[in-house]
Amino acid sequence: MTKRFRFTLTMCIMIGLLAMLSACGSAANDSQGAGNVADKGGNAAQNAANAPEDAPPAEEPAKEVDLTWVGWSGSDKPWIPIIQHMMDTWNTANPKEQVSWLGWPWDQTLQQILVRNQSKQAMDIGQTDLGWLKTLADSGALADLGQLFDKQWLADNFEPSALDAGRIDGVLYALPWTMSATSMVNNPTLLKKAGITSSPATIAEFEADLGKLKALGPDIVPYGMLTKSASASNDIQVWLKVFGGDVFDDAGNIILNNAAGVKTLDWYKSLLAKGYVKMDMARADARNLYMQDKVGFYEDSILAKGLELTNGVAEADVTKHLVPIPRPVVNQGDKTLDKMWGHHLVVFNNSPNKQQAADFIKQIVGKDNSLYYFQNGGLLPTMKSAIADPIVQNDPTSSKFLEITKNSTSVDTDAYNQKAALDNIIVEEFQAAMLDKKSSQQALDDAASRIAAELKK
Amino acid sequence: MNKSNRGLRLTESQFGFLLLFPALIVYAAVLLYPLLNSTYMSFTDQTLLKADRHFVGLANFRALWHDPNFLDMFLHTVAFVVGATIAPFILGFIWSIVLQQGFKGSKWLRSLTLVNWVLPGTAISFLWMWMFQSNYGVINGLLMKLGLISENINWLGSTNYAMAVVILASTWKGVPWFMVFLFGGLQAVPREQLEAARMDGAGNVTAFLKIIYPSMRPIIAVSLILGAIGNLQQFDLQWVMTEGGPARATTTLSIEVYRSAFREWDLGKASAIGLVWVLIMGIFAAFYLRHMREQLKS
After folding, report:
1. Number of folded domains in chain B?
2. What is the band of A382 on the pLDDT scale with cuts at 50, 70, 90?
3. How do residues A204-218 score in pLDDT, each as one tens digit?
4. Record's Gene3D superfamilies (chain A) (predicted)?
5. Cross-chain residue pair A139–B158, CB shorter than 8 Å
6. What pLDDT does residue A61 have?
7. Does A6 fall in a domain?
8. DSSP code, position B210
9. Has residue A389 got a pLDDT over 50?
10. Which of A125, A123, A86, A128 is nearest to A106 (CA)?
């Protein structure tokens, strides 16, 4: 290798390296610009403020804002056209405030929001789950909506309980977009085959019905009880309440492992032993089997109706296949309980366009969009005027869900920002007992000590 | 003119370093920085819920040590790595010997085998998850038809079977990888020695033990070490198929790192587990490097 060649090669490498680094630098700037187009409006204002006073007066540039809406529904096949329609409506009416969607699967959305929030990436509006509120509020990701929405407008348009579901320590962090309960639903077609003519009101009646469904054959799962994934914890916690237990008492002490907790877990084990429920059942599995008429009962929200519609079931036929019922109770006359369920809309603290984001939310929860969402996706509205609309009131499935929602409650772990970890612990220990790896008492004692350790962090 | 030329003159090693420099920058940015950062993170209380972090010394490691589930998780990792390395190795070896016979269609079969390897792990997970689905899975259907079972087995819902099913899926994915490695090794076995042994009356087992195995020992060692490292890193199969359950029966180190970081938001704990994980992988990597050095020397 000659010296000249070596020199030329060295220079080429150095120049190439410098070009690469500068390209990366400008790419980074570009991408920052692209990902953060929303900043443009804010920065323009900042630049204008920083301009020297003696600078020649420039023509006021048109302020353009790009809003990023994050969540999961806009990436979930059945709901994509509905979300797109909502954004198109807004974008047509507001050409200088364009909204675009950025989404992930439901079970990855919370982590994506937290990661993006910590790395200060552009997000303006968020679709969030009711159970994530405490976690998101504690992370500092959410803006105080009390500062962005007129208090009178809020009071005029939403029930106080709906607004309370979006409050943490008195601060309104989220507006309800859709709310219902995760209640028990049954499959009348299958129940009829089993000779069941009325809905079970008590656990004894419920078990009798499960027995009849079991008799239909080995392919039938009488109760699609969730036994997989941390989200099973929500249902477990409601059953705990039904049996008189809970995870925490009012003072915050762990009482999961008390006698009522053991009774609940023993009941879970007995259902498995009788073949009424199955292990390895996630909500998606229960829904799939239910759609195939292989599951008699399972727990779901109003989303179940949306799934029926998006799976081609005609609106008029939904009631033949899906009937929401209050969760059975221990003794006749006990108060029924179900888990409050819903999707929120939030504005992110990092957003430079909070007011525009709030205006967009106002339109999304508004009557027109809510009814469109309801008619095409089956999801219940939250605005008083939309709920009162005959389209909603005269829908048999939805009105039943609305009725059940009145007795719905949040679960204990919702109040902790470590909800995901606590839910995981509860499900793991329930699984261990159901699979006879531990006694019920041992599993719940272990769950209690693991929860205590988690909360100490 | 001479002076300026002298100023630019580089020694061979300096020139070599210069050539490596761009790669070193990329290595530092993509590998070294994250490794050092996550090592530091393992000594902090960093979470995804707050931006600031504080140095907590060995607290995360102490918590791991006292975690009643840590030993189980470690044993599950060992079971998965051993099972998902040895099973595809044996099957891949047998398959490579079969294909090496050069019968009609063997080249086509060799290409076909690689399909499993090309498929994304998530797709493979769903495929096997559906096959082993307790209600409508083809495995239960087949076993029922053959009269081997009288009622459906809940494969992924049982602590007895879940790990075996995950290992089976991983084996299906891993066989082509081992096959390619070992097939290459088989090509290097001296034909004349084999033929001479055959003429001397050596059977299959003797030929394998006396000629094939000694010739292939280096490639067997490398493939096993790299296979074990790959399986230690395996995450998607377990997560998609079982989420580490039921009752933590398939929770390995990789699952726990993900769960700690993205379910518990505890980046400090996740990094501490990750560091333990890297150290374990380091043992395999050390074996691999030593092996490579010995090969270079010889």
Report:
1. 1
2. very high
3. 999 999 999 999 988
4. Periplasmic binding protein-like II
5. no
6. 53
7. no
8. I
9. yes
10. A128
**Backbone phi, psi, residue A100, to 5°:** -125, 160
Report yes or no: B19 at the A interface, CB cutoff 8 Å: yes
Q: How far apart are CA A445 and CA A327, in angstroms?
A: 27
B263 in A contact zone (CB under 8 Å): yes
Residue in B closest to A431 by C-alpha: B247
- Among B151, B262, B264, the residue with its CB nearest the CB of A418 is B264
Which stretches of chain B score pLDDT less than 50? 1, 3
A6 pLDDT higher than 90: no
Domain count, chain A: 2
Looking at the fold, whether A328 and A346 belong to one and the same domain comes out as no
Query: Encoding tokens for residue A334?
Result: 């006990």
In a domain, B268, yes or no: yes
Domain extent at residue B85: 69-297
Report the complex ipTM: 0.83
pLDDT tens figures, A261-316: 999 999 999 999 999 999 999 998 999 899 889 999 999 998 888 788 777 888 88
Residues in chain A: 457
Quick check: is A51 in a domain?
Answer: no
For residue A142, what are the domain limits? 65-179+342-409
Q: What is the pTM of this model?
A: 0.83
- Note whether A335 and A329 are within 8 A (CB): yes
- A6 in contact with chain B, both atoms CB, cutoff 8 A: yes
Same domain, A398 and A451: no
- Is B41 within a domain? no
Residues A166 and A299 in one domain: no
Please report, for the domain that includes residue A78, its CATH number.
Answer: 3.40.190.10
- What the block records as the tokens of A10 is 């060295």
